Amino acid sequence: MSLAQVFREHPNRRYIEFGGKGGLGKTTFSAATAYWLAKQGYKVLVFSVDPQASLSDIFERDIFGKGAVEIAPNLFAQEIDADQRIREYQNQIRQKILDMYGLDEVPKEIEDYIQATAAEPAMEESAIFDAVVDIVVGGEYDYYIYDLVPLGHALYYLSMASVYDEWIDKITALRAEMQEYAQVAAILERKKQTEEDQILAELQDIKKRINTSSGILTDREKTAFFFVVTPEEMIILDTQKAATLFAKYQVPISGYIVNRVIPPELAQQNIPAYLQNRIEMQNKYLKQIDEIFGADVVARVPEFERDITGLEMIGRVAEALFGGEA
Ligand SMILES: Nc1ncnc2c1ncn2[C@@H]1O[C@H](COP(=O)(O)OP(=O)(O)O)[C@@H](O)[C@H]1O
Ligand SMILES: [Mg+2]
Prior knowledge:
This protein is α/β, with parallel strands linked by helices. Helices cover 58% and strands 14% of the residues. The chain has an eight-stranded mixed beta sheet with strand order 3-4-2-5-1-6-7-8, with helices on both faces.
């Protein structure tokens, strides 16, 4: 089945993800798929949760931390600034503490705690996760394309629900600490009831958001997950392993896309032995890929003569991915 066919036959799969090791072409294919879908009149958002995001590079526009930026008609791109998100979090927590306990200043112990928590990697992940939830529950677009981080991270991201639980535990611990605060004990007593309701409501809201987002990630009806693979021994092995892990998280895989295929027609030309060898080696791995992933291989994309940046090159990749099919 071709990639275009996969999209045609599964019109409800509106959350598109490309997975694979770093540098294989996830960002490139995310952008090209967004471009192709937008050309067909769908409103598309391609967004990145990668701190080393390169949507800015590929679209040749500085979009980092600027929200959804319209790149072309129907085509929107967004790079999430996790640090900004964390600062917003911190301010919200400070404000909540000030309001709740009627203080003018956040007590030093609590401020130290807020600072320490923000420095934890889990906090960044959780900020990113929250931003993603905001985007996908927004429902503004026909298609959402996640420009995913390399595999290890992606798996971590999938288990984010548990990281969130940790964060919730920390909030609960913070509450306990606050309760020990002698100065505010009296105020606390009076406010306890409403405060408890508030926090419970917040936790329920967070849970709902987690369920919505992880539900989307693993919903075969709504999500299409593609692995990017290149015709190289180690990459094929890694992809097999990753596919097994993803199966464990019940992420449905919609297909495999082979990138960086040296154009086979070159073999018919008078080419140096060096290139001839490379092509023969590649043929061996292409055969292996077909044997392992079989009918799930939905596209082969050639190695282009230059990096993929700018809409014209993105268009050429889209053509290779979707075979010019509309
Ligand atoms: N088929 C291709 N031909 C030429 N360059 C490519 C091709 N696919 C990807 N690239 C280049 O390889 C680099 C890595 O691709 P990228 O999409 O950023 O990978 P990832 O997002 O998986 O880390 C980029 O510079 C990109 O332009
Ligand atoms: Mg990338």
